[in-house]
């Protein structure tokens, strides 16, 4: 995994937190939602991951006129030389190991829902016939937070399928200086193949075998349940949160904490891993009510308060 980091660092400058969180998600077998303004190497990160991890990657540029069949594939009627007619399934771009859904919120709700079954069950149904997807299968979707005109916000059910929502920020001055020099020359470094799909799947199985201490399990349960206004004992959560994280948040924290420990070379996760991953795992699984938004309260502030008892 250190070699994977180094290979990605040849073409992605700075963004260490984004790279680590994306690798943690892939080790945990999940999907990633990358949110950031244009030009922060979100698309390039996905392409680089496909090369470095030895995965077959494909890209779908989401637009309002994109149809579900453009992602899943469709059946066509063919006639043989003998005159016999039959349907043949032509797979869409979803049949890959690393699918990039660029600007996913520009697709219509009908097209967005086409990815729900693929993300949860790793298969798609076309004309009543199930078609399994390749293994491993990961969706890395991008979203631009600036332009909201002509977009369709992702529904809560689909947001919950993403293991993490990673907010991609601007690089620091040293990383931007290096990027400026390297990317405007005659030749650029290229990422090199470090892992294979089979090795990534072996690493994912290893992550699920990592033991988790009772204190870490209790911290995960306490953190997630404290974010639900129905069961929370925190007055600000009861007053400000419209709905809280569901059981998938607990599962995501458990897997991601294990993956973060493996990425750091440790054989057991700690509460620090849980706290470090609380924001990207919880921020898209909670919503503030109108009164809290009017008062200028943010979800990051609420999650900080949830983490305080365990810090």
Polypeptide structure, described:
With 311 residues, this protein is of the alpha/beta class. Helices cover 44% and strands 16% of the residues. It has 15 helices and 11 strands. It has helices at residues 2-9, 16-27, 42-52, 68-72, 109-112, 114-121, 156-159, 173-183, 197-209, 214-226, 235-240, 247-263, 271-282, 290-294, 299-307; strands spanning 32-35, 57-61, 73-79, 85-91, 98-102, 123-126, 129-132, 138-143, 164-167, 241-243, 287-288. The strands form 4 sheets. Strands 2-5-8-1-9 form a 5-stranded parallel sheet. Strands 3-4 form a two-stranded antiparallel ribbon. The longest helix has 17 residues, at 247-263. It is globular.
Structural class designation: alpha/beta
The description of the largest β-sheet is: 5 strands, parallel
How much beta, percentage-wise? Answer: 15-25%
Q: How would you sum up the global shape?
A: globular
Provide a brief overview of the structure:
With 311 residues, the protein is of the alpha/beta class.
Furnish the topology, listing elements before pairings:
Elements: H1 2-9, H2 16-27, E1 32-35, H3 42-52, E2 57-61, H4 68-72, E3 73-79, E4 85-91, E5 98-102, H5 109-112, H6 114-121, E6 123-126, E7 129-132, E8 138-143, H7 156-159, E9 164-167, H8 173-183, H9 197-209, H10 214-226, H11 235-240, E10 241-243, H12 247-263, H13 271-282, E11 287-288, H14 290-294, H15 299-307
Parallel strand pairs: 1-8, 1-9, 2-5, 5-8
Antiparallel strand pairs: 3-4, 6-7, 10-11
Helix pairs in contact: 2-12, 10-12, 10-13, 12-13, 13-15
């Amino acid at each position: 995994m250190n070699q994977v980091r180094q290979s990605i660092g040849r073409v992605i400058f700075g963004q260490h937190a984004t790279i680590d969180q994306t690798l943690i998600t892939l080790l945990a077998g999940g999907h990633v939602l990358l949110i950031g303004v244009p030009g922060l190497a979100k698309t390039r990160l996905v392409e680089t991951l496909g090369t470095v991890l030895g995965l077959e990657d494909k890209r779908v540029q989401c637009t309002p006129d994109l149809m579900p069949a453009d992602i899943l594939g469709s059946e066509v009627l063919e006639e043989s030389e003998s005159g016999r007619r039959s349907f043949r399934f032509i797979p869409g771009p979803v049949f890959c190991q690393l699918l990039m859904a660029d600007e996913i919120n520009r697709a219509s709700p009908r097209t967005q829902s086409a990815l729900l079954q693929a993300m949860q069950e790793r298969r798609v149904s076309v004309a009543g016939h199930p078609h399994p997807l390749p293994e491993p299968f990961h969706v890395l979707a991008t979203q631009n937070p600036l332009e909201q005109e002509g977009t369709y916000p992702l529904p809560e059910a689909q947001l919950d399928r993403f293991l993490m929502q990673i907010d991609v920020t601007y690089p620091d001055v040293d990383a931007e200086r290096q990027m400026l020099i390297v990317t405007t020359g005659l030749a650029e470094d290229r990422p090199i193949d470090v892992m294979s799909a089979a090795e990534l799947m072996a690493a994912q199985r290893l992550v699920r075998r990592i033991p988790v201490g009772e204190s870490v399990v209790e911290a995960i349960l306490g953190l997630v349940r404290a974010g639900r206004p129905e069961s929370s004992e925190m007055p600000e959560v009861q007053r400000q949160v419209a709905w809280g994280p569901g059981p998938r948040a607990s599962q995501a924290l458990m897997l991601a904490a294990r993956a973060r420990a493996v990425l750091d070379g440790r054989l057991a996760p700690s509460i620090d891993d849980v706290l470090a991953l609380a924001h990207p795992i919880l921020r898209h699984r909670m919503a503030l009510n109108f009164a809290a938004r009017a008062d200028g309260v943010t979800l990051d502030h609420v999650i900080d308060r949830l983490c305080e008892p365990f810090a």
